Structures are given as C-alpha cells and as structure tokens.
C-alpha cells in the first residue's frame, strides 16, 4: 500500500514538473481587454476598412474632377515656330518684293472654353460619379459592420474558451479533492484499489481536459489578436482566466498569460436592443447595389445625350508676333461658338448607353438578391435567439440539478450506496452541463451580434 501511495505521488510529481519547469518563474503578464476596446482596435487596424476608406476618398476626388468640367475652363497657351523659308510678296510686276512674314513667330495668351449646351451630358456624368461615390461610401460602411461583427465573434470565442477553462478548473479541483479523500479511504481499507485508480484517472483526465481547454483559448486569442492587430507578441500558449488565477488547481501547466475579459453575462446587456429592433432597410449591403444602379442609369443617360448637338464657347486673347504681314507684335482677341453632332459612329454611343442600362438592371437584381439574403439571415438569427433563450433557462436548471446530483452521488458513495463509476458519471454530467450552459450563452451572444449587424439598432461599441 505504501508503494502504491509512493507511485501515485511520483505520477503527480511528474505531471507537475513536466508542466512547471520552474516553480520560481516570474508571474505571467495580464491582459485586460473589454469588448469596446477590441472593437476600437480592430477598426483602427483593419486593412480591409482602410482599403474601403481609400476607395471612398478616390471616388470623392473623381466627383470633384467631373464637376470641374461643368465650369469654364481657363488655360494658358503658348507657341513658338521657326521657319527657314519665308515667302516674299510683290504688289505689282516690276516693284520690289518684301518679306511676307517672319522666320520667327510666337503667340502666348489665355484661352477660355465653356460648354454652353450638351443636352445634360456633363451634368449626368457628374451625377453618375456622385452616385458611385455614394455606393463606395455604403461599401465602406458595410466593411465597418463586418469588421465589428467578426471582432465580436472572435471575442465571444475567447470568452467561451475561458468559461470552459473555468468550469474544468472547478471540476479538476473537485476530482483532486475526491482523489485525496478516496486515497485516505483506500489506506484505511474503506475503498477498493479500483476506486483508488479510478479517482486517480479522473484527475489525470481533468488535467488533460484543462490543458486542451487552454489550447482552445490560445487559438481563440490568436484569432482575436490578428483581428485587432495588437498583443501578438504575447505568449498565449497557456492562457489562464483571471477569475481563477489566484485559486487555480494544483498540478496544472504554469500560465503564460492571465486573461481578463468581460463576463458573458455583462456583454449581453449591450446587445439587448438588437433583439427587438427591426431589420435595417437601409443596410449598407443593399445601398451598395441601389446606388450603383443609379450611377449606371445616369451614365447611360449621359452617353445617350452625346447623340445631340453640342455647343461650346471659345475665347482667346493672344500676344502674337508677327501681325501678318506686318512684322510687329499685337494683342489678338478671338471669340466664337462651335457646334458639333455625331453623324456616323456605327452605333458606338447607343451601344455603350445600352450596356450601362443593362448593368443598372443587373445591379437592381443583385440588390433584390441581397435583400432576400438579409431578410433570411435576420429571421434566422431572431429564431435561433428565441430558441437559445429558452434553452438557457433549461441549462440553468440542468446546472443546478446536476451539481446537486454529483454532491449526493458522492455522499452516497461514501456511505456505500453508489459506486465510484456512479460518482464519475455524475461529476461528468455536472461538468458537461456547465460547459453546455456557457456554449448556449455564447451562441446567444453570436445571434445578438448578428442581429445588431443586420438590424437598425444603434451600433455599440
């Protein structure tokens, strides 16, 4: 019996020293991160959002550039020419000729041009560009919502992993206490060798489960760090929930990072309004296609307008030399109106206008498809949230009942009314109930975050 006790001590000592190479290691760093902080960091870091913002800035610049064509255009024009042969002119036969022109000639001066009438070609082109910029703005807003949603889901996954870790820590401490009690009973002859080994195996199994939960928490943290662009240098190989940092069970791996996040319950309150809010009819994913269709419709009109006559005003004032045929400098002012209309281009403009019209119809069809997807996802999230709310009520009752059963089953075992396998089954049921409750709460938060993204509820961070 003493040898068996020594063997048990060696097993747990090996587990402890493998997991904890240095008991005197420095305290691990602590990471405190609220959901609002994670959202803010993700929005600042997101390359996709930065790309969308740059696209919006480019589209806005295009609007200003297109508007410039609606106002008079002023330019400075200059020209210089040198010719080797200058013609000579004689006014009558027998009279001496004189040079008609100069080897050097130049002109410089401002030119003003303005489109007087073009049936709305330039105006519709400007309006089309404005609609495209508005579509790009909706695209930016859509990317922002997607970044927020992904950050929230990543945060919830870390919360779930830490909740599972905490439940397993409680279960591990219970298994360790039962193992010590059963070992004492075994030494006193009140428990069998099978009971002792089963209790020992229960501790080893919980240690393994706890380490596996740390792996899940580590993976979830890495995903969140990548989303926020922060804390990636931290060692998250063995994270530990801050709520159990001061009361963690013995023999676990030494934590490399203590993580302090908001509890699941406190985060839920921030999204409660989303559960009652209607679907967002102005959802950016719909606005992208609607505004794009308007831009394409206006572009079609602008192209069709090019088939009408175009009238333009031109004014020039040049300081020029020579003033033919006089070899002197002079200011020359010129004003005129020009008109142009396409006569034959093999239907090019009409075809381009028709193509833009067809693209507008395609965008409207995409908007209709996006609306169907939005309505489907919103209704699914509403239905799942309603079901999960009912399941959560049942989970609370299950956690309470299984915990009581586990306590009673162990008391029954000590009085000889139950076997160690009954105790192990009851403890496992209690643990699964706790983990299931945390999973249900996380799924509720996921559906609430989805509803917040798809509904007209005011965004939190």
The order of strands across the largest sheet is 2-5-8-9
**Helix and strand run:** HEHHEEEEHHEEHHHEEHH
As an assembly, this protein is single chain
Structural class determined from secondary elements: alpha/beta
**Major sheet attributes:** 4 strands, antiparallel
Question: What's the CATH superfamily, by name?
Answer: Outer membrane efflux proteins (OEP)
The portion of residues assigned to helices is 55-70%
| Overall form | elongated
CATH structural architecture = Up-down Bundle
> How many helix segments?
10
User: Could you list the spans in which at least 5 consecutive residues all have pLDDT below 50?
Assistant: 1-5, 16-24
CATH fold title: Outer membrane efflux proteins (OEP)
Write down how many β-strands occur, each being a DSSP E stretch of 2 or more residues: 9
- CATH class placement: Mainly Alpha
Determine the strand fraction and express it as a percent band: 5-15%
* Number of domain units: 1
In angstroms, what is the radius of gyration?
40 Å
How far is it from the N-terminal to the C-terminal residue, by CA? 61 Å
């Amino acid at each position: 019996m003493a040898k068996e006790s020594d063997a048990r001590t060696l097993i747990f000592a090996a587990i402890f020293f493998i997991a904890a190479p240095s008991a005197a290691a420095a305290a691990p760093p602590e990471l405190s991160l609220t959901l609002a902080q994670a959202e803010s960091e993700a929005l600042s870091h997101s390359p996709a959002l930065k790309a969308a913002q740059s696209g919006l800035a480019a589209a806005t610049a295009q609007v200003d550039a297109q508007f410039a064509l609606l106002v008079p255009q002023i330019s400075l024009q200059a020209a210089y020419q040198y010719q080797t042969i200058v013609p000579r002119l004689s006014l009558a036969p027998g009279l001496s000729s004189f040079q008609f022109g100069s080897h050097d000639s130049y002109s410089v001066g401002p030119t003003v041009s303005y489109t007087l009438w073009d049936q709305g070609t330039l105006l519709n082109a400007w309006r089309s560009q404005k609609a495209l910029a508005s579509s790009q703005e909706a695209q930016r807003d859509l990317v922002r919502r997607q970044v927020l949603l992904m950050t929230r889901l990543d945060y919830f996954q870390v919360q779930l992993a830490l909740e599972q870790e905490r439940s397993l820590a409680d279960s591990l401490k219970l298994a360790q206490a039962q193992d010590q009690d059963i070992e004492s009973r075994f030494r006193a002859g009140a428990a069998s060798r099978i009971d002792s080994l089963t209790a020992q195996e229960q501790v080893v199994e919980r240690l393994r489960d706890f380490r596996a939960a740390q792996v899940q928490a580590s993976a979830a943290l890495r995903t969140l760090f990548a989303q926020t662009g922060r804390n990636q240098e931290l060692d998250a190989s063995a994270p530990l929930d801050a709520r159990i940092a001061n009361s963690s069970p013995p023999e676990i791996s030494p934590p490399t990072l203590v993580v302090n996040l908001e509890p699941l319950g406190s985060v839920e309150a921030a999204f409660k309004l989303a559960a009652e809010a209607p679907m967002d009819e102005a959802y950016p994913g719909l606005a992208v296609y609607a505004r794009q269709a308007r831009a394409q419709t206006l572009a079609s009109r602008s192209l069709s307008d090019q088939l009408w006559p175009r009238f333009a005003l031109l004014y020039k004032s040049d300081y020029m030399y020579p003033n033919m045929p006089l070899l002197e400098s002079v200011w020359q002012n010129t004003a005129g109106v020009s008109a142009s209309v396409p006569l034959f281009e093999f239907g090019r403009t009409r075809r381009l206008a028709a193509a833009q019209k067809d693209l507008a119809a395609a965008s409207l069809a995409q908007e209709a498809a996006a609306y169907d997807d939005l309505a489907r996802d919103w209704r699914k999230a509403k239905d799942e949230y309603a079901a999960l709310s009912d399941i959560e009520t049942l989970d609370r009752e299950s956690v309470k009942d299984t915990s009581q059963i586990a306590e009673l089953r162990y008391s029954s075992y000590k009085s000889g009314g139950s076997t160690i396998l009954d105790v192990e089954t009851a403890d496992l049921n209690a643990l699964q109930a706790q983990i299931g409750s945390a999973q249900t709460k996380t799924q509720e938060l996921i559906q609430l975050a989805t509803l917040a993204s798809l509904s007209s509820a005011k965004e939190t961070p």
